Amino acid sequence: MVTQVEAPLVKLENIWKSFPGVLANKGAHFDLQAGEVHALLGENGAGKTTLMNILAGLYRADQGGIFVESNQVEIRHPQDAIAHGIGMVHQHFRLVNNLSVAENIHLGWEQTPRFTSPEALAKRTETLSAEMEFDCDPYALIEQLSVGEQQRIEIIKVLARGARILILDEPTAVLTPQEAKELFKTLRKMTDDGRSIIFITHKLKEVLDVSDRVTVLRNGRNIGTLPTAICDARAMARLMVGQHVSLPLERKRQKYGETILALDNLTAKGDHGLASLNGFTLNLRKGEILGVAGVSGNGQSELAEVITGLRALEEGKIFLDDEDWTGKPAAEIAEAGVGHIPEDRNEMGLVLNLPVLHSAIMRGYNNEPLRKGLWLLKNEAAALALRLMAEGDVRAPNIGVLVRGLSGGNQQKLVTRREIDIAEKVLVAMHPTRGLDVAATEAVRQALIEHRDNGVGILLISEDLDEIFSIADRIAVIYEGQITGLFDAAQASRNDVGLLMGGSRVGMENMR
Amino acid sequence: MIETLVNTLSPRWKLQRRGNYSRLRGYVFKISAVIISLLIARWAIESTGESAIELSQTVLNMTFKTAFGRKQFLKLATPLIINGAAMLLALRMQLFNFGLEGQLFVGAFAATAIGLNIDGPPSLILILMFLGGMAGGMLYALIPTLMRLKNGVSEILTTLLLNPLAIQFAAFIGMDAWRDMSLAGATANATAQIPYELPAYGEINGGFIIAVLIVIVLWLAFANTTWGYEVTIVGAKMNAARYVGMPVVRNMFIVMLVSGAIAGISGMIQLAEVTHRYSARLSQSYGWMGINVAILAGYDPLAILPWGLFLTLLLFAGTILKAKGMSLEVVIALTGLILFLTSLGEVLANYRLISIAKLEKQVRNEEDALEEERSFL
Fold first, then answer.
1. Shortest Cα distance from B300 to chain A (angstroms)?
2. For residue B364, what is the nearest residue in chain A, using CA coordinates?
3. Could you tell me which chain A residue has the CA closest to the CA of B235?
4. Which of A215, A351, A402, A430 to mutate to test the interface with B (most CBs of B within 10 A)?
5. Which of A85, A92, A250, A369 has its CA 20 to 30 A from that of A195?
6. Cβ contacts (< 8 Å) between B25 and chain A: which residues?
7. For chain B, which residues make up each domain, given as ranges?
8. What is the pLDDT of residues B46-91, one digit of tens each?
């Protein structure tokens, strides 16, 4: 354990916080020294964000004390937090898309002049960003900015309000590797200016890259606080997960078969009528995992939906096994052997308020042996549900419990197994491990790999580069609805993929 | 919200959401809610000086001790059960068919038109009237259905607004177009008598048998058919149904029309069994009470029968209270109270109260297990 040299700048003591059905923090504590970058590490659901939301005034703790410079303070509201110099940049930005940068920065700020003009606000914004040595165009609308730029506006917003302590919640989740590197530089500069930073993450590499100390949370309580200098990734993973972490998945070289799914010049509109796929062309082969990397909102959702028949194409053709399947309805496509692990299991993949049985038979109910004329055969339905649960290692007391009562990992394992079960040819997997803990993530990835080894083509659409690099055989980059790069995983570099994700077209020597 | 309320009221207890659902627990909560409502009603009645026990004995005697009472009871239960079934079907798909009353009137009108204008063997005409009732209710439900499916207009509003139209049309038919001039007094303003009556089997009227059959068919459809499964999924999560490619629009169309058809049947039965003449007095808000029955039954088709019979008993009590000089509104208020408390009970059945002390004990056990691991640091 680290010995404390000076009194901490901020201290959280014995914090308890409960939500219906969950104890998010169970006596957690945390301290921050002036001028350090302190990483808060833990799995999804470990209580990191809750703890920091308490410090930032979004939640109130059931119990426990907050100390700023050794004085106990009451933080009931984000404004109390900022009065103590504490500001937070949330994972989902709190910006108004159709307002300008200057307007967003001045929105809801006491120091905004009562009567003002766009020019005056722009001028103030320029002065502010110059002081902080940030570049920004005060007149630009938020929706015109890249995600990395939007994040910078969020940081300016918080700093302008006088934050000396900056909390960043999973700031790299939405960034390309290059943008992340930029961010880390910015963080260093801020600590040099005497600010302190709390960095919430579940990525070990980032902790090692950027932090001075790390506090590990698991299941709502502290596991320990260590100087980063004496840590390595494996030890931290063990602290974070509480069990030995298995080695990176073995990548068996596959012999690829011929093309199973050919996507030719796909063009489609998104929900808001804007073009989201612009001439997307890609071939998926039997027995491979083809990772589609990209920053969210570049047409990934639409891609998954046009392949599975949930969205109409404007132009282009889809060939499954050399047959033209363009414009076929969703049920027929599924029937033909195309599975789909959807983006959001709660919105699409499962019915939370019905028993597990209902969600398990969603694909099978309309076919032999479940269906006989008008009738849905109950025994066969139960048998299918039990088989999927057994094969997918879905842990539930019985098929009658509500899906809501299952853990996120078990829910996702259920969806994954159900879709694998029908995916005789192609499986479209979108963010298959988002929000899962390490064990469930491993299980889902292992299932995908096994299914690939059965000769099925898997299209893995993910924002998580770690995921793509750990299981994909080939990597494609999607940017503004087009493929801007295609690599063999063995030859791909994170740097090139990252650049392409950000819209750059350089560094394509390794492309094929 | 409820969690916040409990947590504010007492710092020593917490509400936890339950992960599993038990049908039995649901029943226990609902029945407790009814008992609490009845106790409150008893207190209200006794505060007026009447004896609630005596009153309820009178009600039970008048309803079940005489053949006449029993017959009347089943005849009154018939439209409540049928409309309960119609509403439950729509609710299972999250469609709000608040137009049952109007569909009932239009169905009855179609049956009247057939009964008054076509001659033939009674059984044939009754079958024609039955089909006409179905078609009438179905057609009247078609208007809001098309508006919803083609243009996205909320069916809640359209079904609601079509009710007074149907009732006023019935008034016009009874008072003007097809008025039977020989009638006078309280029974005036109605059409001529329809000379066909549904058969009865002992004390059980034919309409009641039809009502039970409808409930059984609905139960079988939901429990054992792929169609019932689709409707359940569409109602519970529309996006999930779309995602697996279920015919969402087609099922919505079918459900709305069948719901209307069932309401139309209750109109025909009312005509052929109770009033025998078409007028605006044909239904005493039975379409509306069907909504109450469906809400009390929750999503369980078989529960329509007991809840339908129970609400019928309350209605009966109302008429008897009225004869005693009390107001009918007491019963309406009681129905409202029961609906309110059972809905509350339904929500509460998903939660469990847990004391902070117990929670802390759980946490301490976990803590002990962790100590060992920490010493490793």
1. 13
2. A26
3. A351
4. A351
5. A92
6. none
7. 67-324
8. 887 878 888 888 888 888 999 999 999 999 999 999 999 999 999 9
Which residue, among B8, B18, B231, B243, would best test binding to A if mutated, counting the most A CBs under 10 Å from its CB? B243
Start-to-end C-alpha separation, chain B:
42
CB contact under 8 A, A376 and B367: no
Residues of chain B with C-beta less than 8 angstroms from the C-beta of A20: 3, 15-17, 351
Closest CA to B13 of B343, B341, B357, B376: B357
Residues 284-343 of A with CB under 8 A from B: 309-310, 329-334, 340, 342
User: Which residues 6+ apart lie within 8 Å of A13 measured at CB?
Assistant: A29, A64, A65, A66, A67
Name residue, tokens 């606080």: A225
Looking at domain B67-324, its CATH architecture is Orthogonal Bundle (1.10)
Closest CA relative to residue B110, chosen from B136, B141, B130, B138: B136
Out of B3, B228, B243, whose CB is closest to A20?
B3
Q: Give pLDDT tens digits for B116-149.
A: 999 889 999 999 999 999 999 999 999 999 999 9
More confident residue, A439 or B17: A439
Q: Which tokens hold the place of B80?
A: 């409540």
What sign does the CA torsion over B275, B281, B287, B288 have?
negative
Cα A176-A182-A184 angle, rounded to 5 deg: 105
Q: Within 10 A of A194 (CB to CB), how many other CB atoms are there?
A: 9
Give the closest of B224, B245, B359 to A330, CB-based: B245
Q: In CATH terms, are A10-241 and A259-356+423-501 the same topology? A: yes
Dihedral class, residue A14 (left if φ above 0, else alpha if ψ from -120 to 50, else beta): left
Domain A259-356+423-501 in CATH 3.40.50.300: yes
ipTM value of the model? 0.83
Instruction: Tell me: pLDDT of A473 over 80.
Output: yes
pLDDT value at residue A512: 42
- pTM for this entry: 0.81
pLDDT in tens, A78-128: 888 989 999 999 888 888 888 889 999 998 888 888 888 888 999 999 988
- A174-193 pLDDT, tens digit each: 788 888 888 898 889 889 98
- Which structure tokens are listed for B192? 């001529």
CATH number for domain A10-241, candidates 3.40.50.300, 3.20.20.150, 3.40.50.150, 3.55.40.20: 3.40.50.300
In chain A, what are the domain boundaries? 10-241, 259-356+423-501
Check CB contact of A219 with chain B, cutoff 8 Å. yes
Question: Which chain B residues have a beta carbon less than 8 Å from that of A350?
Answer: 237, 240
Contact A365 B245 (CB under 8 A): no
